[in-house]
Amino acid sequence: MKAHLITRKGWEALDKELKYLWKEYRPQITLKVQEAAAQGDRSENADYTYNKRLLRQIDSRVRYLVKRLEELKIVDYSPQQEGKIFFGAWFELENEAGDKVRYRIVGKDELDTKLGYITIDSPMARALIGKQVDDEVVVQTPSGPKEWYINLIRYRPFDEE
Question: Which residues are in the Transcription elongation factor GreA/GreB N-terminal domain (predicted)?
Answer without folding.
Answer: 5-74
